[in-house]
From TrEMBL:
A Gene Ontology cellular-component term: cytosol
A Gene Ontology molecular function term of the record: metallopeptidase activity
Occurrences of domain Metalloprotease TldD/E C-terminal (ranges): 240-455
PANTHER family cross-referenced by the UniProt entry: METALLOPROTEASE PMBA
Keyword vocabulary terms for this entry: Hydrolase, Protease
Domain of life (superkingdom): Bacteria
Name of the featured protein: Putative Zn-dependent protease
């Protein structure tokens, strides 16, 4: 099936799903105060190879219809994979039955009607591919082949992986809002194992995009996986000390991700965040701004509305270092509202949407960051879950490179970096222009003035 046919068929399927949801809402409206329904239908293939041989082929197609009903501040939820009228009515009745046994919650209910996405902009997120299994396997095997041919240190492959698919997302509720959109995603990755003087290293590389034609080549992915593996061979241990730390882009995204988790509405109302009562307070240096761009064309995290049906919009999360907003869905907004400070949803019921970091004092290249640091550590990989969201304490196993005289000297491993996220954020010295674009948080390398390093 070619891509234009997939486009036509998936659009017809979206219309069918919208009709199913409209029928579901009509039935439920006659039984309860309010209802919201949603479905995410996924279709795609995942394949893997091992040393060029087919290891796994997986087709997926499916998605459950979720139904949530509200009556007198009580809430009940049920789902069904069967979209026949009989099964849908059974699911509605099940949700109502569950609702009867729940306690009233004054904050439950649909989002505010004036915030609903009654119109849905086209964000250019759908690029279906006519990729077949044979070609997918060929790409995965080519990546492996390129990696194994890189040099004599690459001893074996841990696999080549290719995935391609699309989602149809539809949401509706009792306000008459009923919208849907389609997204696609494609990715290719490779993981290899290298050996030198009895020491082994494993590393990987990947490429991903909404548009399959924008993926990097299989040869590039394979070579990059081998290059990264080779660079870490012969790693040394280091002593315990205080040092500047440069987070490479792939791990820097996680560093900002901890900040995102700490300002979610649920973390705030549960008082399980190190950033309680920090609205309007400086969190980052005054030259740093974090902007959310939910309508970025082809964006990894782009979405016209959130899980509550609330329309998304461009906003600053951080402006010149200062926290502008918590990340609120409709429920958390109500829960955190006070008469003095009424709050509304910020469009974050289902996560964040394309964060970008901007430096008012100009970003630096990776090499310039090394020179700025002069002596310190580049972090390329982190291990463990040593982050306390309540206190902000941070301690994780790491590997990377030792830097001296502004240049990488040799790989290092088996050490721990530690600090407190509040201090780490405030002591960011610079960010790089080597921006990671494959994730929901888009940032370059992040240089922190100093952290504790526990080595041998």
């Amino acid at each position: 099936m070619n891509s234009s046919q997939i486009d036509k068929d998936s659009y017809a399927e979206q219309q069918q799903l919208e009709a199913v949801l409209a029928q579901t809402i009509a039935i439920a409206n006659s039984k309860v105060d309010a209802v919201e329904v949603a479905i995410n239908k996924s279709t795609g293939i995942n394949v893997s190879t091992h040393h060029g041989e087919t290891e796994n082929i997986e087709f997926n197609s499916g998605g459950a219809l979720g139904i949530t009903v509200y009556q007198n501040h009580k809430k009940g939820t049920a789902s069904t994979n069967d979209l026949s009228p009989q099964s849908i009515e059974q699911a509605i009745n099940m949700a109502i039955e569950i609702m009867k046994y729940t306690s009233p919650d004054p904050y439950s209910g649909l989002g505010d009607q004036d915030q609903m996405a009654f119109e849905c902009p086209d964000l250019d997120l759908f690029y279906p591919s006519d990729l077949n299994v044979e070609r997918a396997l060929q790409q995965a095997a080519l990546a492996e082949q390129a990696a194994l041919a890189y040099n004599s240190h690459i001893k074996r492959s841990d696999g080549g992986y290719f995935s391609s698919g699309y989602d149809i997302r539809v949401y509706g509720n009792s306000y008459g809002m009923l919208q849907g959109y389609r997204t696609s995603s494609h990715s290719l990755s490779c993981c290899v194992i290298g050996e030198k003087d009895g020491q082994m290293e494993r590393n990987y590389a990947y490429t991903s995009s909404r548009d399959i034609n924008e993926l990097k080549t299989a040869e590039y992915v394979g070579r990059e996986a081998a290059k990264r593996t080779t660079e870490h061979l012969g790693s040394q241990q280091i002593a315990t000390m205080q040092m500047p730390i440069l987070f490479s882009p792939e791990v820097a995204t996680g560093l900002i991700g901890h900040f995102a988790s700490a300002i979610t509405g649920s973390a705030i109302y549960k008082k399980s965040s190190f950033l309680l009562n920090q609205l309007g307070e400086p969190i980052f240096p005054d030259w740093l701004t974090i902007q959310e761009l939910p309508h970025l064309l082809k964006g990894v995290g782009s979405a016209p509305f959130d899980g509550d049906g609330i329309k998304t919009y461009q906003q600053n999360i951080i402006t010149e270092g200062v926290l502008q907003t918590y990340l609120l869905g409709s429920y958390s907004a109500r829960k955190l509202s006070t008469p003095e400070r009424p709050l509304k949803s910020t469009g974050h019921a289902s996560g964040i949407h394309n964060w970008r970091l901007f430096a008012n004092n100009q970003t630096q290249s990776f090499d310039e960051l090394l020179k700025t640091m002069n002596k310190g550590i580049v972090i390329t990989s982190l291990m463990g879950q040593g982050v306390n969201q309540v206190t902000g304490d941070y301690s994780r196993g790491a590997s990377g490179f030792w830097v001296e005289n502004g240049q990488i000297q040799y790989p290092i491993s088996e050490f721990t970096i530690a600090g407190n996220l509040r201090d780490m954020y405030r002591h960011i010295i610079a960010i790089g222009n080597d921006i990671e674009t494959r994730t929901n948080i888009q940032t370059g390398s992040i240089l922190i003035e100093q952290m504790s390093v526990a080595g041998k």
